[in-house]
Target: Aluminum-activated malate transporter 10 isoform X4
Amino acid sequence: MSQVKGVEWRIKVEDGRWKKAVTSCSMWTLIASFYSKLSKFIKKAWEIGVNDPRKFIHCLKVGIALTSVSLFYYLKPLYDGVGRNAMWAVMTVIVVFEYTAGATIYKSINRICGTTLAGLLAFGVHWVASRAGEQWEPVIVGFSLFLLASAATFSRFIPTIKARFDYGAMIFILTFSLVSVSGYRIDELFAMAQQRISTIIIGTSLCIIVSITIRPVWAGLELYVLVTGNLHKLANSLQGCVDQYFEAQTANEESNKKLMGYKCVLNSKASEDSMANLARWEPAHGNFNFCHPWKQYLKIGATMRRCASCIDALIGCIHSENKTSDNMKKIMSQSSMKVGTNSACVLRELAITIKSMTKSNKLDILVVEMNNSAQELQNLLKSYPDTHNNSNAKMEIPIIEIIQVVTVVSLITEIVARVEDIVKSVEELSNLAKFEPAMFKCDKSKQHSTDNKISPEEQEKDEVAIIKTLQMV
Amino acid sequence: MSQVKGVEWRIKVEDGRWKKAVTSCSMWTLIASFYSKLSKFIKKAWEIGVNDPRKFIHCLKVGIALTSVSLFYYLKPLYDGVGRNAMWAVMTVIVVFEYTAGATIYKSINRICGTTLAGLLAFGVHWVASRAGEQWEPVIVGFSLFLLASAATFSRFIPTIKARFDYGAMIFILTFSLVSVSGYRIDELFAMAQQRISTIIIGTSLCIIVSITIRPVWAGLELYVLVTGNLHKLANSLQGCVDQYFEAQTANEESNKKLMGYKCVLNSKASEDSMANLARWEPAHGNFNFCHPWKQYLKIGATMRRCASCIDALIGCIHSENKTSDNMKKIMSQSSMKVGTNSACVLRELAITIKSMTKSNKLDILVVEMNNSAQELQNLLKSYPDTHNNSNAKMEIPIIEIIQVVTVVSLITEIVARVEDIVKSVEELSNLAKFEPAMFKCDKSKQHSTDNKISPEEQEKDEVAIIKTLQMV
Model:
């Protein structure tokens, strides 16, 4: 018998001959390609973690919380205390533990409230049903289940409830169904409900403690870093595109990346909304007290997006076909770039105001400077043919040469107006959050570094991580 | 003894006298104010349902699914089949049943896959641990729990996994923990796992059946209606703002609402993303087959938002201080409004193309017309001082008078360019989804009305409901 040394697949090609298709080697190619894909995936995943080590830490935190709650099963005395229902504690930890402290607290409170409320109601229904006689019992239980489940489901469509109690409504339905359905069979209903609530309280407390004590990720801080970062991005984009147009800089990769920063601003609405929603559940942390006006950050975000969409239009117009004469551009260049720089300064000062949580004493001056330079630019444009030619020989300007510059200047003026809106919304924030005047800034910052729970170095590390993550998105 | 006729609370005011504070009447005021608040809330909730009756239907569907799954408890033979674990079926229904069919299917598949995978792995670990001897058993189980839970938690940070298997990863951790933790105590592990998986399959199948058969809400259809509706809104905004500027129409509430339509376009990114994500889980429905290119709708959405941000800038410039002379405005008016009308026509034709899922044969002509009118407008602007004055007496134009018109015209040109981008992305969609040429449109539409699972009237009702909901957001 001849030994088989290899397998080959053949395909009959068009002209009738057989062609070798898949040799045994292809098997290895397949495996190799799978392996390369897998290693690429793992590399990408690793990068996600390296860019934001808090994600690794979060995984460890989940592991710690889970292992601690499992102790209820492993340790005999604790097991005897809560019995088989310890399962609910494990489940609670897995379902409730989220990346940010705010989300964990939101889910914990919702779970406890939903469970308690539903448990009490289910008891009531069960009591009424048991009085009504055996024949009516399933009818009453079934009807109440149908009614309450439908009502709770509908409540999740109402925006105010959706924002705060969406998870609670689901848990309400879950608990009510389980208690009323199992109540029909099991007699030890009271003990079960009591155990379930106590295990849930154990699970949620554990989650909240682990989430808050071990390197916490605050949704509020995340929002705050996002908004200040976006202000910087907006400033860079604005200054970058004005400079690129008037100085005709050659665009390199670095400057292009800076220029595109405004796109992050346009796309960050969803993150801002969810973080502001979660931040209000968080206790006082760092420089934020419990009633910090998180909603105001959403208003700031909205004004920033309005400014960003104007920058988008500006960039579009810069790349349009109507090119301006170099002469005209040169004349307008200095004033325009001054407006660009000044408004970028205002945006950066706003970022500093939010970051340091102190009312800036430079801001008013910077805004006045920005407005003055914008007015100057307008005046320069309006007086263009007069001022830049020999006074008497008034030259006629071909309109084609000025279209682009006029548009750019108008849009810059519009951007300045929108930057002022951002200023107003940040000032509102500084009033609502009672920012202190900047006079005591230096002393304060020293004081903070000793008083604060989070050291400035740690906070900075967190911020770098958040920024890195945001850049990846 | 004297009879008590009323109670009153008093406060000592600054000058030392006592003042009546809360009389027994105030109690009623309090209740009345609470009642009025409650009735307002209920009214608002009712309106939400009336505007989109599918929400009421969804609640009924949840009730039906829950009541049917409860039968497993109520009916003795079925109860004997799956026993106490029937609880898992109830739980599955509550957790898995979502508003759209896509979301329900996504959660169902994730739940089944996550449970099965985790169950198998937990068995493996348990088997290894039981071989290692009693001393090592808790160590191996605990360590594997820690490791796998951390890994699965981390996988939820990876974007591709988050988009498709976020829920599955959570269920994986949940099942693995429950099986491995309870496995340490309970011997009937195999029976438990088997029962759990079968109850989950029962629950998910029930959810999918109810969700798909009773007046289904398709995420795909929702996305499609959102995108076509946004195209109409964009068209109305664009035409509205051009008309308002050049015709100096007095703005009434109706026209202002139309004008602000572009804001919905700017804010719909999050909804589009989530719906496109869910739509790919849905089976073929209506005119959409299983591999319908849902992602392309996101591209269309992105190009629409770029156009909308340009409209935002345009509206800003229209309200700026630099007013144009009526004369200049009058001269430009006709051409500008023509561009506005033509590009609105293109946008509406795109909406029709997507809506009817047929390649439009008018579209090319409309795009050419739009571009021609834009070019005309440009030419008119460029030749402005020459053409509109007595040829030889060349008048000098004060630049202040033309700033606004030049900006408006430039922005309109930019908008036209961006509308062309939308056209390109819709054309890509029509190629990817293999839209048929419009020639057979009339016959087709007749055919559809008999062939289709959803009657056109029903679909239209749904669309009206979706649009009403979107308007409320």
